[in-house]
Design a protein that fits this description.
By secondary structure, this protein is α+β, with helices and mostly antiparallel strands. It has three domains: 88 residues, Phosphorylase Kinase, domain 1 (2-Layer Sandwich); 253 residues, Aminoglycoside phosphotransferase (APH), C-terminal lobe (Aminoglycoside 3'-phosphotransferase, Chain: A, domain 2); 133 residues, no CATH class. The protein contains 16 helices and 14 strands. The strands form four sheets. The protein has a five-stranded antiparallel β-sheet with strand order 1-2-3-5-4, with helices on both faces. Strands 11-12-10-13-14 form a five-stranded mixed β-sheet, with helices on one face. A two-stranded antiparallel ribbon has the order 6-9.
C-alpha cells in the first residue's frame, strides 16, 4: 500500500509526462469501493487520478475503456498508467450524475421530462454497450469472471444469504431448502440468451451527465451475459424510487430499441423473439438483482457500518416485498417466499426518520440473550458499557423478581462504592460526547448498558443515565429502552 504522498507524487509525474503542469491534487470522497480517486487541476484542465491495488481489476478497466472508446461509446479516456499498473489518470467527467437529477425529482415529488429523457438516453447507450461494445471485446481481461454463469448467480444469492439474511435474527429459514430454491432460480436464469455485454452495475450513480448527455463509469466488473440484468439494475435501483408508471414506460422504450436489432439465433431462445425472451426471464432478474442489492447493503451497511448503504435497506426491502406480492415466475420458490414474507418486521427495524434535534437512545440489554442492540440511526452503535463487573443483585433471592427500576434494587446498587465510580466515569465520557454532538449538529447518539440478564444492573444504569441526561440537557430528546423487559420511556426536549 502506498502512502497518500506517494500516490499524489506518482499522479503528478504521470500528468507532467503528458506535458501539463499540476496545480492542485485533491482527494475525492470515498464510495463503495476500495479505489481512491483524486481530482487534479492542471494548467489546461481537470483530470482524475486513481489508485487501486487490485491489478486484475485495473487491467479489466484499461482494456474495456480502450475498446469502448474506440467504439465511440461515452466513457472516460485513460491518459496515463504507472509502471506498476496501480495508478492511472483519466479524463474528468465532472460531479453531476443521473442520480443527482433523480434526487431533485424526489425532492420535488415528480420525475420531470429532463430526467426521464436522460433515462431514455442511458437506455439507448446501454443497447450500444450490449451490442456494439460486445463485439470483439476481449473477455479474457474481465474481472473477476468472463461470463455471467451459474457461479456468478450463486455468488449473488449467497451474498444475500450470508451478508444480509444471516444478520437478521428475526427471520427464520431452512438453509437447505433455501439453497434448493437458489439452484432452481439459477437454472432458470441461465436459460436466458447471454451473448451480450453485461455492464453489471448499470445504475444512476455510475452515469455522469455532461452537457445533458450521459457518460458511463465503473464498468470494470462487466462480463458476457444477458440483457435483462442491466435494465433491472437501472430501473429497479431502490434509492431512485422510480414510479411504477415511469418504470413501465422505460421498460417499453428499451424493448422497442431491442426489437429493431438483428435476430438472435433461434437455437439460443427456441421459438421466442428477442423481446419475448426478454419478457419471459425479466421477473427472475428483478428478483436476483434485488437479492444481490440487499446482500451489498448488508455487507457495506451492517458489516462495514457505512451509513449510506444502511439507509438504503428499507427501500430494497419494500421493492422485494412488492416483487413477492406480484409473483410472476412460472414456478414457486417456497422457502425464499417464506423468508420474504417475514420482511415486514425488518422495515420497522431499519426505517429511521432523522429527528430535528439530537436524540439520545439509552438501552439496557442482556449479553446472554440478544446481545448489543442494533443502531437504527446507522451511526455504528455509540457507547457500550459492560456492567457485569459490578455487584449483581440477581445473585440474591430477594431481588430475583425485581428490576433495576425497583426501589429495592436501586437501594442495593446505590449502597456500593463501585457503582458510584462507574456512574461518574460514564457521565464524564457521555457528557463529553453530548457537548460535542450538540456543537456539531449531530442528530443521534446511542448509549448501551449490558449485564448478564438485562434485568438489574443494566436497567439501573440505563434509567439513571437517561434521567441525568434529561435533567442536564433539556434541549435533547431521550429515549430509554429496557430491551429485556420490553419497557420504554420517552423524555421529550423541553
Amino acid at each position: 500500500m502506498l502512502t497518500l504522498e506517494e500516490i499524489k507524487k506518482t499522479i503528478a509525474e504521470l500528468i507532467e509526462n503528458l506535458g501539463e503542469k499540476v496545480l492542485e491534487i485533491v482527494a475525492m470522497p470515498s464510495s463503495g469501493s476500495s479505489r481512491r480517486y483524486f481530482r487534479v487541476k492542471t494548467d489546461k484542465r481537470y483530470l482524475i487520478g486513481a489508485y487501486n491495488i487490485n491489478i486484475e481489476e485495473n487491467e479489466a478497466f484499461f482494456c474495456f475503456s480502450k475498446h469502448f472508446h474506440e467504439c465511440g461509446l461515452p466513457v472516460p479516456e485513460i491518459l496515463a498508467i504507472s509502471s506498476d499498473r496501480d495508478i492511472y489518470v483519466q479524463t474528468d467527467l465532472g460531479d453531476v450524475t443521473l442520480f443527482h437529477h433523480v434526487e431533485n425529482c424526489l425532492k420535488n415529488g415528480k420525475f420531470d421530462d429532463e430526467t426521464i429523457g436522460l433515462y431514455k438516453k442511458s437506455l439507448d447507450k446501454l443497447v450500444d454497450f450490449q451490442i456494439i461494445g460486445h463485439k470483439n471485446l476481449d473477455y479474457s481481461k474481465a474481472f473477476p469472471t468472463p461470463a455471467f454463469d451459474e457461479m456468478s448467480i450463486m455468488e449473488d444469492l449467497n451474498y444475500f444469504k450470508y451478508c444480509f439474511l444471516k444478520e437478521q435474527e428475526e427471520i427464520s429459514f431452512n438453509e437447505t431448502r433455501l439453497d434448493i430454491d437458489f439452484q432452481r432460480l439459477a437454472k432458470y436464469i441461465l436459460e436466458a440468451p447471454s451473448d451480450f455485454f453485461m455492464y453489471r452495475d448499470f445504475q444512476s450513480r455510475n452515469i455522469m451527465v455532461v452537457g445533458n448527455e450521459p457518460y458511463f463509469i465503473d464498468y470494470q466488473g462487466g462480463r458476457k451475459g444477458p440483457l435483462q440484468y442491466d435494465v433491472v439494475s437501472l430501473l429497479y435501483q431502490v434509492k431512485a424510487r422510480i414510479p411504477e408508471e415511469i418504470r413501465a414506460q422505460l421498460i417499453e422504450y428499451y424493448k422497442q430499441r431491442i426489437s429493431r436489432l438483428p435476430s438472435v439465433a433461434r437455437n439460443d431462445i427456441g421459438n421466442l423473439s428477442l423481446v419475448e425472451s426478454f419478457d419471459k426471464y425479466f421477473p427472475a432478474f428483478v428478483l436476483l438483482r434485488l437479492l444481490q442489492v440487499l446482500g451489498a447493503y448488508g455487507f457495506r451497511g451492517l458489516i462495514q457500518k457505512k451509513l449510506h448503504f444502511m439507509q438504503s435497506i428499507p427501500y430494497a426491502i419494500q421493492e422485494i416485498m412488492k416483487a413477492c406480492d406480484n409473483w410472476s415466475l412460472p414456478f414457486e420458490l417456497p422457502e425464499l417466499q417464506t423468508v420474504i414474507k417475514q420482511f415486514d418486521v425488518l422495515l420497522l427495524k431499519y426505517e429511521s426518520v432523522e429527528p430535528e434535534r439530537l436524540t439520545i437512545t439509552v438501552n439496557s440489554f442482556s449479553f446472554k440473550n440478544g446481545g448489543v442492540p442494533y443502531d437504527k440511526s446507522g451511526n455504528g452503535g455509540g457507547f457500550v458499557f459492560d456492567c457485569r463487573a459490578l455487584p449483581n443483585p440477581g445473585r440474591y433471592a430477594e431481588y430475583k423478581k425485581s428490576t433495576g427500576e425497583d426501589a429495592d434494587v436501586i437501594e442495593f446498587l446505590e449502597d456500593k462504592t463501585d457503582v458510584h465510580y462507574f456512574l461518574q466515569n460514564v457521565q464524564m465520557i457521555v457528557y463529553q460526547s453530548i457537548d460535542n454532538y450538540l456543537e456539531r449538529g449531530f442528530k443521534n447518539l446511542q448509549i448501551n448498558f449490558g449485564c448478564t440478564g438485562g434485568q438489574h444492573r443494566s436497567v439501573f444504569f440505563a434509567q439513571k443515565i437517561g434521567e441525568l441526561i434529561h435533567e442536564n440537557y433539556p434541549m435533547v430528546n431521550v429515549e430509554i429502552n429496557h430491551l429485556a423487559q420490553h419497557i420504554s420511556h420517552v423524555y421529550e426536549a423541553k
